[in-house]
Amino acid sequence: MLNAADHGVPQKRERVFMVGFREDLDIEWSFPKATHSMDSLLWDKWVSGEYWERHGISAGRTILPAKMEARITRLGSLFAPEQSPWATVRDAIHDLPDPEERDHSKDIPNHRFNPGARSYPGHTGSPMDEPAKTLKAGDHGVPGGENMLLRPDDRVRYFTVRESARLQTFPDEYVFHGSWTETMRQLGNAVPVTLGRVIANDVAGCLRRTEKLAGGGLAEIA
């Protein structure tokens, strides 16, 4: 079970991965260790303040989350965490213009406002300054609150396709076709690109090391 946020994806997305190697290779392998953490994000926000400085936001305009107060106090008495901070929604989409103000889809592919978002119990959207909730495929209709942005003023709106692609770490060069609902279904079913790369690179590195030890005899499976 891996959480995409622990590997640099701006989304709390837990998924099970199974990796197998040919038995005769006698390979010992384990999943890559987490490189990002919530504690590091809390440190950047509430101990060093670097998160707010990076985005040009005064820390005085934010409210310390009461449920995290004890954890933040403990962090303040320690050294800075070694891992990088979890990436947030703001990190992912800060340079995209607000689609609700006007249609930007001619200049930015797939960045079109989709109306009709509403908040209801259990579906309250993703806060701007945390990793997004898990994007859903919406197999039973329009995706719910997990595919909404929760603005700082508590208003909600649906993520655009481009914003959702950013949250799944697809490059901006990827252009999606079809209706908003169908495209969001594709994105909701996808593995975050960054997480897929992390696992694939680690597996590839393991195979290369094994091939080198075997004198190049594994070229056929690399």
What does this 3D model show about the protein?
By secondary structure, this protein is mainly α. It has two domains: 159 residues, DNA Methylase, Chain A, domain 2; 46 residues, no CATH class. The protein is 29% helix and 7% strand. Helix 1 crosses helix 3. The strands form three sheets. Strands 5-6-7 form a three-stranded mixed beta sheet, with no helix packed on it. A two-stranded antiparallel ribbon has the order 1-2. It has a two-stranded parallel sheet with strand order 3-4.
Described by the principal axes of the CA atoms, the overall outline is globular
Unreliable runs: none
Mean pLDDT: 88
Sheet/helix structural class = mainly alpha
| CATH architecture tag of the largest domain | Alpha-Beta Complex
Q: Helix tally?
A: 7
Number of domains: 2
Fold-level CATH name of the largest domain: DNA Methylase, Chain A, domain 2
Mind summarizing the main beta sheet?
A: 3 strands, mixed
CATH class of the largest domain: Alpha Beta
The succession of helices and strands, N to C, reads: EEEHHHEHEEEHHH
Radius of gyration: 20 Å
Cross-sheet strand order for the largest sheet: 5-6-7
The CATH homologous superfamily of the largest domain is named DNA Methylase, subunit A, domain 2
Helix content: 25-40%
Question: Which percent range describes the beta-strand content?
Answer: 5-15%
Instruction: List how many beta strands DSSP finds.
Output: 7
Measured distance between first and last alpha carbons: 25 Å
